[in-house]
Amino acid sequence: MKFIGFYDYTVILTYLSLVSSALGIKFAYQGKPGTAICCLLISGICDMFDGVVARTKKNRTADEKNFGIQLDSLCDVVCFGVFPAVFLYFSGVNSAVGVAMLIFYILCAVIRLAFFNVLEIKRQMHESGCAKGYHGLPVTSAAIIYPFFYLVGLLAPENIMTAIYYVLPILMGLLFIADFHVPKLDVAKVLHKLAPKKDEANRKEI
Questions:
Q1: Cα-only R_g, the chain
Q2: Which of 28, 118, 150, 160 is the most exposed place for a label (fewest CB within 10 A)?
Q3: What is the mean pLDDT of the chain?
Q4: pTM of the model
Q5: Cβ(75)–Cβ(14) under 8 Å?
Q6: DSSP per residue, the chain
Q7: pLDDT band, very low/low/confident/very high, at 201 (cuts 50, 70, 90)
Q8: Residues 28, 87 contacting (CB under 8 angstroms)
């Protein structure tokens, strides 16, 4: 039997990111916010390196590249759009106003990712490698922002954290669709710069 899609190592991290977020939604529903936040962090780490892994395959076809773009954004909708909204809902943002805010957050995440796909496909027609920056706040920033505020919430009063959780989806949603430039951290270059320093340190020790 033949299956549609592309199946190779370049998409494994993207799938793992989605699996982690699906589990995180389950833990949020079960009232285990700490475990859910850990799943969000794992999704963020997987997303950070999936592009690096994909670019190691030099003979990718145009269809494989476009499939990767679409797959990444579709998974990001769940991982950094739906999942954080579910987390916030079970963390107390469950009033009528709160639900409206969460819907707004998800909608902005979808708009931002769809626009990213348009720009990325157009960019790859003229240049290779990864993009140098973003238009608007990347939705993947949710993997940093929500864990940070969760840790803050372990020390802050509950009513303060509830207020923050109500503000966050609106603020982040607006930043998702705001047109401003955000520099992109090139993970591959960072790792490449760190490697020689490590080798040099080892030589000095010898």
A1: 19
A2: 118
A3: 88
A4: 0.84
A5: yes
A6: ---SS--SGGGHHHHHHHHHHHHHHHHHHTT-HHHHHHHHHHHHHHHHHHHHHHTT-TT--HHHHHHHHHHHHHHHIIIIIIHHHHHHHTTT--SHHHHHHHHHHHHHHHHHHHHHHHHHHHHHTT--S--SEEES--GGGHHHHHHHHHHHHTTS-HHHHHHHHHHHHHHHHHHHHS--EEEPP-HHHHHHHHHHHHHHHHHHH-
A7: low
A8: yes
pLDDT bin (cut points 50, 70, 90) of residue 121 is confident
CA distance 129 to 184: 12
The answer to whether 10 and 64 have CB atoms below 8 angstroms apart is yes
At 55-64, the pLDDT tens digits run: 888 888 888 8
* Percent of the chain residues past pLDDT 90, beyond the cut: 58
Say how far apart CA 160 and CA 154 lie, in whole Å: 11
